[in-house]
Automatic annotation (TrEMBL):
Entry function: Arginine methyltransferase involved in the assembly or stability of mitochondrial NADH:ubiquinone oxidoreductase complex (complex I).
Family named by the database record: Belongs to the NDUFAF7 family.
Location in or out of the cell: Mitochondrion
Keyword Methyltransferase belongs to the record: yes
Protein name in UniProt: Protein arginine methyltransferase NDUFAF7
Species this protein is from: Seminavis robusta
Major localization listed first in the record, in broad terms: mitochondrion
Amino acid sequence: MLIRRHVAKLLADYYAQPANRVVGSALLTEGDINFKRLWGEWHYRRVCSRLYANQEGRWLTSVELMRPFYSRVLGNFVAEQAEASLKDSHDCFDIVEMGGGRATNATIILTHLQRSHPGIYQRINSYTMIDASPSLLELQEQTMRSTDHADKMKFELKDIIDVAEGTTSFLNPSNTPTVCISCELLDNLPHDKVRVKGGRLVEQGNILPLSEDGDNAGSDGHEMQQTSTVPLVEAFAPLSDPLLSSILKLAPEYTRTSVLTWIPTVACGVLHRLHQERPNSTLMFADFDWLPPPDLTKEQGLAKRTSTWAAGEPIVTDMDGLDHSCYLESPDHCDILFPTNFDHLAKFVHKSWNISNNAPFQVDVYKQSDFLERFGPEQVDATKSWLTGFTPMLHDFSNCSALTVTRRQTSNGEGTNKGKRNPNV
């Protein structure tokens, strides 16, 4: 079995839990955080600690912690891209959100468009939420059903790995302008692990059961019958997987990072499918560009891990908040989070989407704080502490970046290049 398929099974088990166990809600008893009344960073951290103590899920995202301001910035991004894409006054566009969490983001974006960009709101053909978690998708449907936006909503349960591998469609093929957004999804998409031998030969990682005599049982990378009593090990074989091969052909820089490297196969596959089915798309994907090392006990740190360390190693965290040394040694219902190399991913998009210097689209990478300042300076200002000027919009989640594909600017607007990296190859 390919490593990505094993990781996909682990993540599917994690996301099959009740929604509250997966994504927390940042609602205080008295409502959202009043950022203007915070005394500074220490006060913000204290409020966050209380929020984490009062919610069941393992994580609170930027969308939840910085509501409604973070999502309003995304609403501005959607409005700008729609306005640039719609040529005729009767044209409409689609919005697609992948991994919509508790539907907090969708609710705020649509309400912001309705109030601040009413002309754009009226031209929304549909807002489609795509999720691999049945429990989260059910919560999203329940949440949106009670809003003013229910008639615009579509909900699709999809296994994203099937989309990436081409065994199921992503979206209905169309030239309709489409804005695709995703926050903290890339870190939870299955990855492959590859090994480079002799500086050129690439081998793909497989998961195999360890037989009683210590030998690996089988080495073809196909599906295997797995039981909880059989230990699993990694084994490497010559590169043969079509999806992984096509990605490394377009983005060879992934194999230049280290002898052993994690490859965001599913993320690349989904981005490729998006362009195939919706060539008139723009997008914004935000996520972690680096992650801290796992917080391991002394015994865990000294123990020999089952898998081999590779560049882009994930953090594996259980429902009690304890980290584990690797994904093969973790208990059930662990979250597996990968960092994203945004420059490599952007270069893949350049080649996969065939974006040249005179194409109507451009690919950029921002630090998250720069993206928020670029598309929502008024929202950033609304979250600044009256005393110190601290704002989590700029000073929290400093390990996050945003990948954007946007309509190429026809004129230079003030501040449009701030913090932006254009990773053209």
